[in-house]
Amino acid sequence: MKKFSALLKVSVQSMLLSSTNARGRSRKRAATGLSAVALIAFLGLYLSGFYSYMLMQVLAPVNMEALLFIFMGMAALVGGLLFTTFAVRGVVFGGRDNDLLLSMPVSSTLLMASRVTAIYLENLLFSAFVLLPAGVVCAMMSSAGHSLLFWVRLVIATLFLPLLDTALSVLLGALVAFLSARVSRGALGQNIVMGLFLVAALRFSLRLNEMIAGLASNAAGVKESLGWAAPLLWMGEGVMGDWGLLGAFAVCCAVPFVLVVSGLGRVYRQAVTAFAVRAVRNNYRLSAQSASGQRRALLRKEARRFFGTPMYFWNAGLGLLMLLAAGIASLVMRERLAALAAAAGEALPLLPLAAAATCFCLCTCPIAAPSVSLEGKYLWILREAPVADSTLVWVKVGFQLLLTLPCAVIAGVCLSAALALPVWQSAVLLLTAIAFAVGHAAFGMLMGLCFPKLDAVNETVVIKQSLAVILSMFVPMAALGAAGGLYWLGGKAAPWAAVVLPVLLLILLAAGCIAVLARWGPGMLRSI
């Protein structure tokens, strides 16, 4: 038990706190771990609180509260897979300390169990912040949650659901690692898995939205149509009082977890060795080198890392895909949007909603923020190259702008055409998107220089859990909220103020970030 506890502590630190060879505990490292935990908790709490209230308004009058926990269980399951599938590849199969731990007098199954348990704890955190708030909403809006046994059953379901989530995450992570080792371009295999997974998640979300829309008229029929999700049906009925179905759900979650740990534990040493050998193999080929300037060469280097690192691409580039998809979808659904806008009249301010949606998608694209940390131990090569520090800084900012500005402009033009906005409103929308994109790129670069993580265990820690990435996402969201507040306050004073003040705020923030980066950015890079 002592061995397992020690290994589990190392695995949790590797996943959340990014333990390194540095001695002691720095405040930055602790803040990074707490920030990652806070991010997971916030997303789960927001998702559960918002949708639970909407669902209970429909389900409470017809005594179908079990559907609330079925839908929230689905959300926890899919969200956990999104959070941990690629973390499995880095933490379980790609940990930097695997060679050291495998050489110790511990069984590979015990090491595998400690790694998987760390993934379970992250899934447990998300599930708790999804299911428990749903229980609070259920208790507030119906009498079903007023008994102590209800909370006992809900806690049991919360503890066992992450076991099933973890088993699926480990299997998908193993598939990603296998394809990375087998496919000549490892990034291609990971992109295939992630693309298929996102398509499946999108289809599942659309189907879920259709079922939620039909709850008011046919809640019982929706429940009967969920036979394909039998374990979650058992969980919902078990939370509402059926102990037998709750036990069946617990067994259905525990058995796959045990089988995955014991099965992969037996071949863990061979799998880690095979993946590591494939990762370090290089095929050297002599070929002609084309002449290129410094900036073009650095931009190509950034592009190879961005498109060649699936974790980087899918986490920092998903917002760009959302922008393009939203623009195309708005044109396809132009008539429906026009009818909705006509029905709502002035109560639906189209310009601020379109600007808020565009800027929110840009917030989810922290491309420049992790770029310095992803250089890792090879940053000294760039610093020793005959390239000015200012050039290195602005190339990383410029690469993000090369990706975000075209997507923002395309989305803005499509939204303007679909919503039939006047010319001046279309110009304001584009100006807002451009100013926000520029400010977000400069601010992200500042955060990357302020909170570098050059000794991270793997790229997963840098891209998903570093303080720089978290701040570069949520601080611009706060600025976007401040702009919304100015829109509301300006509207009470004069119509022109509602448009001018938010745009002026975003322009000033972007100019301030650029000025600070130009003044202190090169020096911050030299001090790393």
Nutshell version of this structure?
The protein has helices at 2-17, 27-59, 66-93, 98-102, 108-141, 148-182, 186-213, 215-224, 230-239, 243-266, 268-280, 294-308, 310-316, 318-332, 334-344, 350-363, 379-384, 389-419, 423-450, 459-465, 467-493, 495-527.
Helix share bin: over 70%
Order of helices and strands: HHHHHHHHHHHHHHHHHHHHHH
Q: Bin the strand percentage.
A: under 5%
Number of DSSP strand runs: 0
Q: What spatial form do the alpha-carbon principal axes imply?
A: globular
The stretches of 5 or more residues where confidence is low (pLDDT under 50) are: 17-26, 279-284
What is the residue-averaged pLDDT?
80
Largest sheet: none
Structural description of this entry:
Helices cover 81% and strands 0% of the residues. It has helices at residues 2-17, 27-59, 66-93, 98-102, 108-141, 148-182, 186-213, 215-224, 230-239, 243-266, 268-280, 294-308, 310-316, 318-332, 334-344, 350-363, 379-384, 389-419, 423-450, 459-465, 467-493, 495-527. The longest helix is centred in the first third of the chain and has 35 residues, at 148-182. Mean pLDDT is 80; it is low at 17-26 and 279-284.
